[in-house]
Amino acid sequence: MANLQTNFIGIQSPNPFWLASAPPTDKAYNVNRAFEAGWGGVVWKTLAEAGPPLVNVNGPRYGALLSPDRRLLGFNNIELITDRDLEVNLSEIIQVKRDWPDRALVVSLMVPCNEAAWKSILARVEDTGADGLELNFGCPHGMSERGMGSAVGQVPEYIEMVTQWCKHYSRLPVIVKLTPNITDIRIPARAARRGGADAVSLINTINSIMGVDPYSLTMLPSTGGLGSHGGYCGPAVKPIALNMVAEIARDPQTAGLPISGIGGVGNWRDALDYIALGAGTVQVCTAAMVYGFKIVQEMKSGLSDYMDEMGFTSIDDFRGRALPTVTNWSALNLNHVSKAVIDQDSCIACGRCHIACEDTSHQAITAIKDGKRHFEVKEDECVGCNLCTLVCPVPECITLRSLAPGEKDLRTGRIVSDKHEDWSTHANNPMRVSV
Ligand SMILES: Cc1cc2nc3c(=O)[nH]c(=O)nc-3n(C[C@H](O)[C@H](O)[C@H](O)COP(=O)(O)O)c2cc1C
Ligand code: SF4
Ligand code: SF4
Prior knowledge:
The protein contains twelve helices and 20 strands. By secondary structure, the protein is of the alpha/beta class. It has two domains: 6-325, TIM Barrel; 330-402, Alpha-Beta Plaits (2-Layer Sandwich). The strands form six sheets. Strands 3-4-7-8-9-10-15-16 form an eight-stranded parallel barrel, surrounded by eight helices. Strands 5-6-14-11 form a four-stranded antiparallel β-sheet, with no helix packed on it. Helix 3 (115-126) packs across helix 5 and helix 8 packs across helix 10. It binds flavin mononucleotide and iron/sulfur cluster (2 copies). One iron/sulfur cluster (SF4) is lined by residues 342, 347-353, 375, 392, 394, 397-398.
């Protein structure tokens, strides 16, 4: 069985699956049960400075985007950071770390943006025996209105400054958790690196409103008739997070900076996507909240089976392996040609591909042949856009075939070239580079 052991910025964990800072890691009761289920690590629910505990709303703090069969696609929350007393949290962290020495225990922090506040809490956390710190510069609701969370994460100078304080006042490794509510994720990641961060983690949640009640015409979810934008997460955000992870991993200024990938991880395949794009660990919140802690068992066995099948003996064997395949549009080969192919044996003649292609693509799929329903690709019209393969309800019934060099593209009448030609050198580009 493949070895899932992970060393992330010096923090050891038996597998790369960590629970993200959120309700699943809110208290010792949860974290003990999560470790019993097999999680490799946790990032404790974000701690606040000492003082009167924060107060959450006593109404619907969660909202969801559900598929028609009620599977959760996206999740939204207006929960604050921990609303439990600092002393209680710290004593539970001490106990949990003592009881589970082989698991990663990282403590998430969010205190006001002044040096004294950070200095004071850093010393307290170091005394717990925790393995690392995660700086929550990401929460987009509630705390940001008080000048914390994403209010810090949206100002690179603040990120750099607070990270420097943490590196100065603590010996623990520092992970900076980034907000996706920003135009270019590379900017805050560079600031974190300048501040001395050992790693970044991303994404925190995306600003969102779930909808409106059609009869009361109030936003949803609402607390007694008023709502507030909340943080969006769950399966729907994974592609956004993956792009941000890849952007940081391939940016020359942050390349090599360790990354903990977060957003929509629900199974081993999701984790593989993050690791292949450069993440060293993944963190999970929504999936654990919806399906429970035991989902980690499938994650571990699935990833381990995959690694055995591929001949990988460690996570590092495939970490970042997909990165060289991520490029800019301008570097894509415009001489490449694909055509859709329909497998007539598995086609159930539902007609969805025809409707999609006929109404919104290239009118390249038949509906009737010899007076009967028949769905076949017209290669002289198909541009290989992939829409039909995505709408077909039968897996693998429609596939895309790459034309080999020397074959004729029936749509353009051109012979497919074996030469790579992208937009930077294309004849139609007035700004082309001569080669
Ligand atoms: C209810 C809820 C509370 C959260 N609280 C925190 C928090 O206290 N600190 C933090 O850094 N992130 C918090 N998050 C964000 C998660 O840690 C995570 O970044 C985000 O949910 C994306 O992961 P997911 O798609 O697996 O849920 C919270 C998320 C949810 C849903
Ligand atoms: S790939 Fe696009 S153009 Fe070709 S048949 Fe499918 S939907 Fe039509
Ligand atoms: S969508 Fe798929 S199953 Fe339906 S007609 Fe097209 S190829 Fe056949």
